[in-house]
Amino acid sequence: MTAPWDDWNHVLKLDPDKELPDGVTYGDLCATGTDAIEIGGTTGMTEENMSAVIRACAEHDVPLYQEPSNPSVVVEEEALDGYLVPTVFNAGSPFWITGAHKEWIRLEGDLEWDRTWTEAYIVMNPAADVAELTEADCDLSADDVAAYATVAERMFGQEIVYLEYSGTYGDEEVVAAAGDAVSDSALFYGGGIHDYDSAHRMAAHADVIVVGNLAHDRGVEAVRETVEAANEA
Ligand code: 1GP
């Protein structure tokens, strides 16, 4: 079975609640060579701001995925290639593991299963909005993270394990441990990638690196460097 992300090295994550730098367009960001765009964020999400970013990116030739942080911001847009739905394995509340998902299905009935996948998040930066919201236990050793990754892959059949350091550059030893732990699942890494070197180092351990803030803070050239690094690692 092939998955859309089998050939990906780099994902650009755009937050509909954040501005782009002056003079930068969504089209410029879509043309950086990134393999896919994920649209999502933790706070300030609405159907309106989600749809606006999806429509702006839809005019360009890059796969588009929504990453809904809760059921109320899911948008049905033809331009989307699919949904990458987070489930937070180290959340303090089961709401963020299966509860939000249960509500979504209770309200919506069947989803479009042929284009809906989950991402098994392990949230690592306690200062990040996602850690606060999900009350994640971020006090994890490399062994803990490797064990969570194995639980996700072997016990829960997760195709994507997502090591999330959102807003800060992660511990390379921990990322390496997660990479060693998974064999069938794809390891996504996100957090604090800010230049060629940081992208290259994390791409050595992860199958896919995810770049977020850089697009909003520094713009196109900085993102393009991380794409090159991901492809050369
Ligand atoms: C956030 O993993 C992504 O969900 C990327 O993190 O914004 O720190 O690049 P940054």
Automatic annotation (TrEMBL):
Pathway membership: Membrane lipid metabolism; glycerophospholipid metabolism
Pfam families listed in its UniProt record: PcrB
Positions contributing to Mg(2+) binding: 15, 42
Binding site for sn-glycerol 1-phosphate: 13, 162-167, 192, 212-213
Coiled-coil zones: none
Cell compartments where the protein resides: Cytoplasm
Keyword DNA-binding in annotation: no
Listed name of the protein: Geranylgeranylglyceryl phosphate synthase
